[in-house]
Amino acid sequence: MTEAWISEHGTEGLVSVVIPTYDRRQLLAETMDSVFGQSYRPIELIVVDDGGTDDTDVMVGERSSRWSGDPGFEVRYVHQPNAGTQAARNRGARLANGQFIRALDSDDLLYPENIERSVRALQKTGADMACGPGQRFARVGGVPYDLGRVNTGRPPAGLSPLSIMLRGRNLLQPNLSVMTRRLVAKVGPWDEMLHQFEDIDFGFRAALLGASYAYAPLALTGRRQHSGERTSRRRGPEFAESHRCLVAMLDQSLQASGRLMTYRADLCCFYCLRITRARNWESHLFDAWQRRARELWPPSHPIGWPGFGPCWRLIGPVRTRLVRKAFVAARRARTALPAAW
């Protein structure tokens, strides 16, 4: 599947930033500005317009002309029929010439030294992927609000990236990372059949192949939350099917590679996390995932508490909703960011 989808060799030192977009002219303009403001050169910025109907092409052309005096920065624009975010990312990756590839969403922002620090980490460690933290934020009335950071802190020592990801921390996140072209060629294209979780799927496939990882603590990415619908956002049956496919792919890959027993406890933890994070319209998956978790790690009841296990499982749906509500309440209690994105 992954043979020659893209070549493993690119222009040395060049970073290809691939941005898929669909009718997000204003948000995309800010994203492009943050890429141009990078301290690193050379960069090629590839914008793939996935069937958009606004004047994104005009805006991109204006910025391309404005930045034409910078020999280390190139802008490329391509328009394609609407096929989804993953198809647009794959198109951009095929057009990329860089030794490094940076996948970026059209509503996100890069801290000025994001790419420089990531590339430095890759060159220093020889890793396949350099990932930094993400700062989740939202603007309300022009004021940025802090919604918390993700992927903060170095990964715990002694655990493989796959174990850490199965336990709930998605280390290998393409939307927070600069990746070597060699890794992208090896992992293969983003799965165009998924309507959600495509970055998690890509990260898990990289981990299954043994991708090496470097953490760049100051390579910060601004992850914008807004009312506009995300390019890949779907709800209902298609979302649930993507969730089911992600879980099934991982389970089957571990079985096929003979590593199921090695990661048995971690995979059980992964199933429990998916149950907790599943949405209301995915309730039909709860029973199947619970059965699989029990197969991987049968529950043992505390001595003297014969009814504890059944009771704990009975209140499971209520417990899940209470945990979710607590997270939402904590998010809303965040204060405004001291510095604007």
Helices and strands in order, then pairings?
Blueprint: E1 11-21, H1 25-36, E2 43-50, H2 56-66, E3 73-80, H3 85-95, E4 98-103, E5 109-110, H4 114-125, E6 129-131, E7 134-140, E8 143-150, H5 161-166, E9 177-180, H6 181-187, H7 198-208, E10 213-215, E11 221-224, H8 237-256, H9 264-277, H10 286-296, H11 308-314, H12 316-332
Question: Describe it for me?
Answer:
This protein is of the alpha/beta class and 341 residues long. The protein has two domains: 214 residues, Spore Coat Polysaccharide Biosynthesis Protein SpsA, Chain A (Alpha-Beta Complex); 96 residues, no CATH class. The protein contains twelve helices and eleven strands. Strand 7 and strand 8 form a beta hairpin. Helix 7 packs parallel to helix 8 and helix 9 packs antiparallel against helix 10.
Q: What would you call the shape?
A: globular
Number of beta-strand segments? 11
- How many separate structural domains? 2
Percentage of residues in DSSP E strands: 15-25%
Low-confidence parts lasting 5 or more residues at pLDDT below 50? 229-234, 302-308, 335-341
Number of helices: 12
Widest β-sheet, arrangement of strands: 3-2-1-4-9-6-10
Largest sheet properties: 7 strands, mixed
- Fold-level CATH name of the largest domain: Spore Coat Polysaccharide Biosynthesis Protein SpsA, Chain A
Question: In CATH terms, what is the architecture of the largest domain?
Answer: Alpha-Beta Complex
Q: Please state the CA-atom Rg, rounded to the nearest Å.
A: 21 Å
CATH H-level homologous superfamily name of the largest domain? Spore Coat Polysaccharide Biosynthesis Protein SpsA, Chain A
Cα-to-Cα separation, first versus last residue: 40 Å
**Which class best fits the helix and strand makeup?**
alpha/beta
CATH class of the largest domain: Alpha Beta
Query: Please, what is the average pLDDT?
Result: 86
Helix content: 40-55%
Q: Give the SSE order as H and E letters.
A: EHEHEHEEHEEEHEHHEEHHHHH
